[in-house]
Structures are given as structure tokens and as C-alpha cells.
Amino acid sequence: MTQLLQQKLKPQKLSDIILAQLEELILEGSLQPGEKLLPERELAKQFEVSRPSLREAIQKLEAKGLVTRKQGGGTFVSKRIMKSFSDPMFDLIANSNESQFDLLEFRHCIEGMASYYAAMRGTEIDFEKIQDKHNNIGNCQLEDNFHLEAEAVYEFYIAICAASHNVVILQTALSMAKLIIDNIEKNLTVLAKRPEIFSKVTDYRRDLLDAIISGQPKKAWGASHRHLTFIEDILLKLTQENSRMKRTMRRM
Fold it and tell me: What is the mean pLDDT of residues 66-84?
């Protein structure tokens, strides 16, 4: 019995404690795929541990495939951990018109939940990040580059997901980065043909921002729903108009 208690009370190894903390940083999105870790000396100082213990923790992270080390270049969070979709599957979804509407429906779910919990749980630091990402969308619009703007819109939503403090929501959104950015870019390309509609989308996004920052979960969920429903309705109407035009041209 005494021997069993001694095994249970065995102190946790320092490198395992550091490992758990680094894993948590990756899980919550504080360390992003492809991001370079601080040099060992600085990281050891930050964790207030010895460099050998830190080095052992990083070796364990590497063994799990969570980080990669480049000789003389440092340690990076592995990009492979986000490859939940294979390239062939991505191409199939990205090139399917019907799948674009499926992605909008998916965004209804995940962005609505993220907005709700961000308004409920977000901190002042979270709100500052969301505001900064929202401001960056306006800056990118000046560049007249839809891909650049789509990336900015996606970063705005990722900031909202991070503020939800739900790692499943955040990691799901991160794992679908390519698909979501592609969907946003295609939507922007179509909506830009109607300037009055384009400006309304900006207004809806501002309503969403205000609801989150003011800490109103239900209002934030509603704002997210109205924003994406508006986009979906407009795209459906434009698709129908385009289909009618094609039929008319064929008859002519």
C-alpha cells in the first residue's frame, strides 16, 4: 500500500510540465502553425526553468510531430498539424458551386457560436485584437485585392474564434483556412459587382463587431446570422439571374 501511494505521489517531471504548457499554447492558438518559437535562452527565462529541461520538453513536442527544428534556424510549430483536408478534397470542394453554399451554411454554425461565446467570454485584450483585425479589413479594401481582403476578413473571424475561448471552435476554423478564405474571396468577387450591396455587408460586419465588444451574446449571434443570411440570399439571387441570362442567350 505504501509503495502504491509513493507511485501515485511521484512528482511530475519538469519537462512534462513545460510540455503541457507548450501544448496548451498551441491548442488555444497562441502559437500558430508555422510560427517560430522564442530562442531556448528566452523561452527558458520565460518559463523560469533550466535550458536542459526546456530542451527535453521541446524534444518531446518534436517526437509528437507538433514542432519541427531547423538546423541553425530555430524551432517552429509544425504546419502539418492543420492538414485535416487533403489537397484533392480541397480542390473538389473549392471548385464546386454547390459546395460554396454548403460552406456558407457551415460558417453560419461556427461563426455564430464563436460570436456568441466571444461576446460572453472575451477579454479586453481579445476585443482589442478583434477591433484591430476589423480595421485591417478597411485597409485591405483600399488595395483593391480580393484575396488580400478575404484573408483580412478570415483573420477577423479567427480573432472572434480565439475570443470564444473554445479550442474546438478555434482549431476547426484554423483547419479550414484555405476553404474559408477561398469562399470569402469568391463571395467578395461577386458582391463587388453591386457596390450598394458591398457597403451593406460592411455595415453588417460593423454590427457584429459592436455586439461582441459590448458583451451581448444573443445580439452577436443574431448579427452573425443576419450578415451571412444576407450574403447567401444575394448570391442565390445573382446565381438565378445569371442562369436566366444564359438561357436567354442560348435561345437567341
Answer: 78
